[in-house]
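Predict the 3D structure for this chain.
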Amino acid sequence: MSKNKGSKRNDRNKNRDILALFFALAAFVSAYSILLPSNSGILGKAFSNIVNLIFGDACYILPILLFWYFLLNIIRSFKQKGKIDFLWSMLSIISASSFLSADKDLLGLQLSGGWVGVSLYPFIERLLGHFLSLGVLAIIFIYSLLKLFRIPIGNLLKSFIACREEKDKEQIEPAVIFDKKEQKSSPKISQSAGSLFGEEEYDDEVSGEPNIIASKNKKKNKNTVYEKIDSSGIDYVLPQTYSLAEDEIIDYDENKKELLSRAELLKKTLAEFDIKADVKDIIAGPVVTRYDLTLAPGMKVQSIDGVIENISLAMRAAAIRVVPIPEKGAVGIEVPNPESIIVGLRGVLESEAFIKSQSKLTLALGETTDGKGYVAKLDSMPHLLIAGSTGSGKSVGIHSIILSILFKARPDEVKFMLIDPKRVEMPVYSDIPHLYNPCVRACDADIITDPQQSAAALKKLVAVMEDRYNKYAQNSVRNINEYNAKMQETGGQKEFSVVVIIDELADLMLVAQKEIEDSIQRLAQMARAVGIHLILATQRPSVNVITGVIKANFPARLSFQTSSKIDSRVILDMMGAENLLGKGDMLFLPPDESRPTRLQGAYVSLREIESIVNFINKQNFPRVYDPPVDEIKKENGFKADKNKELLPIIMLIKERKRISQDLLKANFGGSAKATNILSILETENFIAKPEGTNKWQINWNKVNEYLSESEIKIKSKEQERGGMEYE
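Done. Predicted structure below.
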């Protein structure tokens, strides 16, 4: 598949090169013929007369348009829009011809609009009048050129307005920047963005109204530009957040009465079942509101779990979740809001936690229940396991993870090895310079979609890991950070981190479970120190997919909504994920905590992803890394020496009258070694697997021939030894 994609991409590039050459010649010939018709020969004069007759003096725009088509085809980062570009080109030259026909004496010059202008302008003038027609034609001409030249009109207006506002501010308050502190209208309302568990100050005694703890709307820093310069002199600018959509504004003061009434309803509902509790705090968030209750002495937390369905009916809300909060001595009841607010990726990227994080592998996961941006560091996890049913927001969460790393790391600092068996989620990243595949050259790296190629790439990545360990041992360092620090001192080549993302693990496990599981096990156990991190995602979190070997090495778990309690137990080792709302609602279990944190995942649209990817690709940063590791001829201690190593294997086949991976694994140890033996036997034509079957067939003629040759060689060696002893 990757070869076919590469050939198609090469064909497209060749076609664009041919078109670029054509438009370059056309632009030069048309400009020369129009400007110097007397020196352009018969064809040049004829061309000049025809375009002058049709478009008049607007024909001078034609060489500019043709030259722009040359740039569109020669610069790879420009997206091809053939029909739309042709439409804007024709609209610009027709509007120019009509405008020149309307105002023939422009700036003291006698101009003509040609046949197009003379035919079209009288009709427009009858509809709109002379002056209004001039304005409309000028606007159409400018707008069509902006669309053709890929100039975003909205950004121009925003930058113009921002410049005007900055000038006005400088005139009124020069060089004064301060934060206005909001006065609290009521002591019961706290407008602080506290953490999810206990960073706020609480009263020990509950009296009257509960505290409403809501998050402030974050200010957007539109002019922040993060720039890094490579030591080799190649400039690279990190993507900017202004290309992402802004978050919706939340006004919690307007919802104060509703929050208090729902808290009173919750209290009455519990009282109907003889559960005495007071609502201490109300933590309002974009999607879920948490009501913190203090239970009366003698009341059990399990009593609330028994009436959770009744609470759902009374509050008219599904998927209510009960969360014990030991540090506050309270029980939190998370109730979905009647109207949820979409949490955008931009708000999380502009949060203080993300900006201050020094890790290149900082993940912008979403917002907590109280609306505070939540980030995690992949290098400290060091691997992440993601699960969620269809439609729960798992794919959007993976996109948010990839983009958050792209906002932090350069292509020479972090590489992505993207495995997408579904073939629909990852192609948007196929041209970024961050791609990595240890099996191919850097220029040929692409999204891996074939299960067999995925198994080979993971297997080769294990060899890369071992090679790095050998390199670190030679330099007397323990991990990638120490190695890079030493290379910076000595001027050597630094190592980059590798993030392996598998979008659907279940599909790979169906085809090549042993190979995939063995490679994942070795990488998960050892790859942290060398800067290789795994992110595995699946929509079927069963024990056949997420095996015990995988779970043991993935302490960090991220679960979206699951279809059953069993799936929740598989991914989180506890229930709760089945009660999530979907659409980005998730439970994140860090490796150093015993209780998961509820988050609302950051949403990012496909258009926003494409804008970030285009921004990165336009910089033409080179995709460079070390050549692929050589083929592993002695993996797991097995060497393909026919006379020595294959003889006991062939004798085992002769004895058992069959061949299988389990048989080889039981006699020679290790599933990876058994797979390697099977591939060598198939290459040497000892066994074969016909199409449509899943059973190995033995070539007995080849087996008998090999055994007879080996027996002759053994006898001849024994005779030589006997002769030598006799002498």
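The CA atoms of residues 266 and 272 lie 10 Å apart.
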